[in-house]
Amino acid sequence: MNINSEIKASEVRVIDPDGNQLGVIPTHSALSEAENVGLDLVEVSPNATPPVCKIMDYGRYRYQQDKKQQEARKKQSAIQVKEIKVRPKTDSHDLEIKLGHIKKFIDKKNKVKVTLMFRGREITMTERGKAVLEQIAEQATEFATIEQPPKMEGRTMTMLLGPK
Predict the structure, then answer these.
(1) Residue 1 has pLDDT above 80, yes or no
(2) pTM for the predicted model, two decimal places
């Protein structure tokens, strides 16, 4: 966005601070007009023919734009992926505890990656591992949705849960 003397066009379409069009006038006249009012001449639409310029307080305009961006960032929420690890032989009571943790994470609008790790000869129990993940998914259906069903990756099986 070009301001005041940075504007290279010889003629510009000028809009005054109230939003009324002053018409197409030479750039030096537009600059003197803005100077008389005590404001800046700002190029709003440089690609138009002739370029459109507005007489405004550029410092105040930038301040308002920064405030809008700050508000937009404040309203944004970053979704985190939390991880819960279980094993094929994890007991039912321990699974209930893990489910409580999953519920807490989901309530805070985070996603949960449930990782089931196989060690040593446990790799032969893939059906049991899948059953454990399906049991967790079944108990979590009231507050979570399955975003990625259980899938095997090497010695781990993972599943992704997200908030409803």
Answers:
(1) no
(2) 0.56
